[in-house]
Design a protein that fits this description.
The chain is of the alpha/beta class. It contains ten helices and five strands, in the order H-H-E-H-H-H-E-H-E-E-H-E-H-H-H. Bound molecules: thiamine diphosphate (TPP) and magnesium ion (MG). It catalyses: N(6)-[(R)-lipoyl]-L-lysyl-[protein] + 3-methyl-2-oxobutanoate + H(+) = N(6)-[(R)-S(8)-2-methylpropanoyldihydrolipoyl]-L-lysyl-[protein] + CO2.
Length: 313
């Protein structure tokens, strides 16, 4: 990774963390329409994998992969508008949290149905190959989500067809309050039979970036799909309404010490690539202003409720 990529990766991770912090404030003020699903402690997995892609590639994030959307040019203000359900949000107030995308930005919209995006992205990867395009498709899945039928159906199809698909597995210690040993037989990396599999320390942003770049090359060489397992930990509850009292405090503390953000800052400092010292303050101020603009945005007009849902006579 060169210096400019490292600076972009650091800024993306910091922006993700601070955007989510602002969302938590809005949630605690009772302003968001639902809960807030953070990626605290996992920012490296979404940001570094998405950053290793080319602009022509496509992603389908899950709720804990907001960082990948910011990497692809989604503005935090859009995210705030969406969480607040406003008329000017990407879905016009019809959905909340990060359930939106944009084909022009190479983002297939997030959905709640875990695993469902794997067959969808296998289809996207198939379309790239049928059109002779050198592009890859990427999506993410948690340890819990990897127990779905859709995960196996999608990956099996991609293996049989040798599709340019990267599935990033986020082994983050929990699915809601269920630890992997209560719902998963064996290791996560063993679940993608026939796929090229990589396992990486998900809290080491430089290692995740390198692994994702390698995964992309494997796909472009026609040797996909790739299952890239990132071993990480969810430092917050499942969402803001969850106080994670079921997590052993000592375990939480061990993982706090492996926080990917200070760790990457130390990695950069060793190379004398330290980010602009004013970056943090500038991002906080920009996010506060974006949050205020979103709060001032109008609510959707109830008479438009059925637009885009039912055909008008
Ligand atoms: C098919 C399906 N089953 C159940 C749910 C309900 N659900 C939402 S999040 C979640 C836990 C997901 O855990 P994991 O896949 O490990 O992701 P993490 O939340 O840890 O990022 C569950 C069971 C769902 N959204 N989709
Ligand atoms: Mg999980």
């Amino acid at each position: 990774m060169d210096q400019s990529t490292a600076l972009r990766l650091h800024e993306a991770m910091l922006l993700t963390r601070l955007t989510e912090e602002r969302l938590v404030k809005l949630f605690r003020q009772g302003k968001t329409l639902g809960s807030v699903y953070r990626s605290l402690g996992q920012e490296a997995t979404a940001c570094a994998t998405a950053l290793a892609l080319g602009p022509e590639d496509m992603v389908a994030p899950l709720i804990r992969n907001l960082g990948s959307m910011l990497v692809r040019g989604v503005r935090p203000e859009e995210v705030f508008l969406q969480y607040l359900g406003r008329a000017t949000s990407p879905t016009g107030g019809r959905d909340h949290n990060n359930h939106f995308g944009g084909i022009e930005r190479g983002i297939v919209a997030t959905t709640s149905m875990l695993g469902a995006l794997i067959p969808v992205m296998a289809g996207v990867a198939l379309s790239f190959r049928q059109r002779g395009e050198r592009r890859v498709a990427m999506t993410w899945i948690g340890d819990g989500g990897s127990s779905t039928g859709a995960f196996y159906e999608g990956l099996n199809f991609a293996v049989v067809q040798r599709l340019p698909l990267i599935v990033v597995g986020e082994a983050n210690g929990f699915a809601f309050s269920t630890p992997p040993e209560r719902q998963m037989a064996g290791r996560m990396s063993a679940r993608a039979q026939g796929a090229f599999t990589l396992t990486v320390d998900g809290n080491d942003a430089a290692a995740v970036y390198a692994a994702a770049a390698q995964a992309r090359q494997v796909c472009l060489d026609g040797k996909g799909p790739v299952f890239l397992v990132c071993e990480t930990f969810r430092l917050s509850g499942h969402a803001e309404h969850d106080d994670q009292r079921y997590v052993d405090p000592a375990l939480l503390e061990t993982w706090r010490e492996k926080d990917p953000l200070p760790r990457f800052e130390a990695w950069m400092a060793q190379r004398r690539w330290s980010p602009d010292p004013g970056l943090h303050e500038r991002l906080v101020a920009d996010l506060a202003a974006a949050g205020e603009r979103a709060l001032a945005a109008p609510w959707p007009d109830p008479s438009t409720l059925e637009d885009g849902v039912f055909a008008r006579p």
